[in-house]
Amino acid sequence: MPPIEDVKPSTRVYFLNNDLVRIVHINKSDNIITVYNTNQDKTQTMLFSDFKKHRKRAYRTKDCATLLSLSAVQLNRHIRSGFVHPPKTPTLGGERKFHHLSYYSEDDLFILRDSLSQVHRGRPRKDGRITNYGIPTERELRSRIGDAMMLYAKNKSGEFIPVWEERAL
């Protein structure tokens, strides 16, 4: 599994009002941006400052699996079983299609994390409780996507324990 530091959001594809948009042209001096809305198949022009306020970062499915400490196969298995909602694809309507890159928004990452935290790994426990190894906490996920910083300390047994957190504004 690649290191978490290698996971970066897309720089040309974003979510805007739950639609995937691709940047066509930016004119920063006039504060204008032109985007292509792939889900509605149309070009839109808007203020660049508004775009920066309302955009959501887009992560590929493979990167989402890495951020959630899963393999891509495990995430696809959860998608096929219907436990996790499918990602959006830059096609008309946004339905997932074979041989197309699929994306989750940063809000979808937290929804996925919440639903995956309810999945038990391994054999069922006699007391019925859930054991979900490796699913990051909400703070850890926020830190992994770059919205916060966390400092980890290594204890005597070699485990990393979070000891400090800073939230980005």
Layout of secondary structure:
Layout: E1 13-16, E2 19-27, E3 32-37, E4 42-47, H1 48-54, E5 56-60, H2 61-67, H3 72-81, E6 103-105, H4 106-116, H5 138-144, E7 148-154, E8 160-167
Antiparallel strand pairs: 1-2, 1-5, 2-3, 3-4, 5-6, 7-8
Description:
- This protein is α+β, with helices and mostly antiparallel strands and 169 residues long.
- The protein is built from five helices and eight strands, in the order ββββαβααβααββ.
- The protein has two domains: 4-136, no CATH class; 137-169, no CATH class.
- 25% of the residues lie in helices and 28% in strands.
- The strands form two sheets. The chain has a six-stranded antiparallel beta sheet with strand order 4-3-2-1-5-6.
The CA-CA distance between the termini, in Å, is: 30 Å
Give the low-confidence spans. none
Number of extended strands: 8
Q: What is the H/E order?
A: EEEEHEHHEHHEE
Shape: globular
Give me the secondary-structure category.
alpha+beta
The overall pLDDT average reads 85
Count the DSSP helices.
Answer: 5
- What order do the strands of the largest sheet run in, or round the barrel if closed? 4-3-2-1-5-6
The oligomeric state of the chains shown is single chain
Give the proportion of residues in helices: 10-25%
